[in-house]
From TrEMBL:
Protein name: Tetratricopeptide repeat protein
UniProt-listed Gene3D superfamilies: Tetratricopeptide repeat domain
Species of the source: Neolewinella aquimaris
Alphabetized InterPro entries for the sequence: TPR-like_helical_dom_sf (IPR011990)
Length: 461
């Protein structure tokens, strides 16, 4: 049956629960077969580990019709589709190439505009170009329509543009603290929240504010504060407001992180699998986050399968941060599934090819896993050479006071020295306990370091 309905099945496997919830709530289908198919589509979209086959006794043309209807229905509310349309019109207008049908649709969009649109700023800018186009051609009536719109919403545009530029300045503090565990960003929380809750602000600014508020809340572990806003946009997506597949996938990815921080792991994994269902620019980022969680929960087989499926994305990405993260998690998955020789070889090849990028971006994550691979392969001498070659202990000491720091590198260095006979049993075990107890009790750092120590057990015998 899957072969017979292969295209339809492939299409529905990419659909997301909020998309199908919207379709279920906004259809006027009367045919019982089409309704039954849509209900099955909605059920399958909510599942991440099971699939109920479609009824092949139903006329295949009904599947074809329903797929076309679903695509058209979702495209009609997709704000990114609308943005692409605006960009196309902008190019056509400034090159004097717009045709009558495009003009008709643009003028209709003005008449039916409901403020605030998601991409209000781009719509306003396109109309600014269009006003020039009309004026020089003495099309007075259409020019008056466009001019009136621009005058009516001039203050709204200025406010949105000012907010957009201000968000760029805020982002520097937010990203600095999130990526480097330094700096401060809490002072922006209230203003970001005000932008997100401002119903008169355009959707793009509200979305950008929420993303940055999410970072700030994660930085300061204010998880309940951001959960309230996530529930708000959850309802909006179900109603088809401010929707695109990209925005919805980003929501799933952030929701995964939120539930992981709250230690609601099953819910986190559920949203994680939803976040990797679609391929987009940030796909590898979502894969890395889900793989990291699966590995932390000792679900290494699932993590390895997930990472192997993202190999092409890792090869083609220009984002070194994501690529190095992928490599580290792939090495960890290989180690945890007993592929020790493969892990060592892969890590060595990657270090040889990308040493500058590793040292610049995610050296701590990469070297923690790579050194562990060398030790698991019985190569403490090689591990100590790598530590000296890349001055890892000096790098680690410089990072030791940053929030979220884990003493994995010095622990692995002492483990290598111990296995080489350079430390006595008493010295090594005393140092090992000291590092564990140096982390605050009941903290996320202590929990993560304890999990890391469990991975060392085969080397401590």
């Amino acid at each position: 049956m899957r072969d017979r309905l292969r295209k339809f099945t492939a299409f529905t496997e990419r659909l997301l629960p909020h998309e199908t919830a919207y379709l279920m709530g906004h259809h006027q289908l009367e045919d019982a077969d089409r309704i039954a198919i849509l209900e099955r589509v909605e059920r399958n979209s909510r599942e991440v580990s099971s699939f109920l086959p479609y009824d092949e006794s139903i006329d295949k043309r009904k599947y074809h019709h329903l797929r076309h209807w679903m695509e058209k229905k979702l495209a009609a509310i997709d704000v990114d589709e609308r943005h692409a349309w605006l960009l196309r019109l902008e190019r056509l207008i400034v090159t004097d190439a717009i045709d009558q049908e495009d003009e008709r649709q643009l003028l209709r969009a003005i008449r039916h505009y409901e403020h605030p649109g998601f991409y209000f700023m781009k719509f306003y800018e396109v109309l600014g170009h269009y006003r020039h186009f009309l004026q020089i051609r003495m099309r007075y009536r259409d020019h008056a329509t466009v001019h009136d719109f621009l005058m009516t919403y001039a203050d709204h545009y200025a406010r949105s543009k000012e907010g957009y530029d201000r968000l760029h300045a805020v982002t520097q503090d937010v990203v600095e603290q999130y990526a480097r565990r330094g700096g401060e960003s809490w002072q922006w929380a209230e203003s970001l929240e005000q932008v997100f809750l401002d119903g008169d602000m355009d959707g793009l600014n509200r979305y950008l504010a929420l993303v940055r508020l999410t970072f700030v809340s994660f930085n300061h572990r204010e998880y309940d504060r951001i959960l309230v806003h996530f529930d708000r946009i959850d309802r909006a997506f179900r109603d088809g407001r401010n929707y695109s597949p990209r925005l919805l996938t980003n929501y799933y990815g952030n929701r995964m992180l939120l539930h992981a921080y709250r230690r609601e792991y099953e819910r986190a994994i559920y949203y994680g699998w939803l976040s990797v269902r679609s391929l987009n620019y940030d796909h590898l980022f979502y894969v890395n986050n889900l793989a990291s969680l699966l590995l932390r929960l000792d679900r290494e087989t699932e993590a390895l399968e997930l990472l192997q499926g993202a190999k092409q994305a890792a090869k083609t990405t220009v984002n070194s941060y994501n690529r190095i993260g992928y490599t580290a998690f792939y090495l960890e998955a290989l180690l945890k599934t007993g592929r020790l020789e493969q892990a060592e070889s892969y890590g060595e090849s990657y270090l040889r090819a990308y040493r500058k990028e590793i040292l610049r971006y995610r050296w701590h994550l990469f070297f923690t896993v790579y050194l562990l691979a060398l030790l698991r392969r019985g190569q403490p001498t090689r591990a100590l050479k790598v530590i000296r070659q890349f001055k890892l202990l000096d790098r680690d000491a410089a990072a030791a006071n940053k929030p979220g720091y884990l003493p994995t590198i010095p622990t692995l260095a002492e483990l290598a020295r111990w296995r080489e006979g350079l430390l006595t049993d008493k010295e090594f075990h005393a140092s090992f306990r000291k590092r564990l107890h140096s982390l605050p009790e009941a903290s996320e750092e202590r929990e993560r370091f304890a999990a890391f120590c469990r991975d060392l057990e085969p080397l401590l015998q």
